[in-house]
């Protein structure tokens, strides 16, 4: 009887060792997991991450680079778009607010460029904070149209900032996973 208990005890120890020493393969898809966290923009997230050939690695650092590159590419066009809108707007109140958005777009772009450097240096907490700061800066532009007296934000500006905010949100989620 003592012999059978000893073998059972050894089996339990062996099984405990196996279950804690070797990670089990996961059934999940990292890109799906990330994009599920942004349900309103899930299709944009999937398109952004999956269409890049680098995404086949399913590596967080690579997904961060993909999302950074997409956000920076989009952000680079925003300041010139906003400047062109300043020239198109005739209402002085709207013109002043759109002019302020030029600076907000430039600051958001600078933050995103800094995020790229931080991820390259493996400073993920700071990268996440700077991505959030980029999104906050875009919100400053949008919120300026809510001030008194309220002004109508040009549709082109709304669409452009919404797209960039969605791309930055993907970046924030990816960097959250890296923390």
Automatic annotation (TrEMBL):
The keyword Signal applies. GO terms for molecular function: pectinesterase inhibitor activity. InterPro entries: Invertase/methylesterase_inhib, PCW_Enzyme_Inhibitor, Pectinesterase_inhib_dom, PMEI_plant. Residues 1-28 form the signal peptide. It holds the Pfam family PMEI. Residues 26-174 form the Pectinesterase inhibitor domain. It comes from the Eukaryota. NCBIfam families: PME_inhib. Belongs to the PMEI family. This is Pectinesterase inhibitor domain-containing protein. It comes from Lactuca virosa.
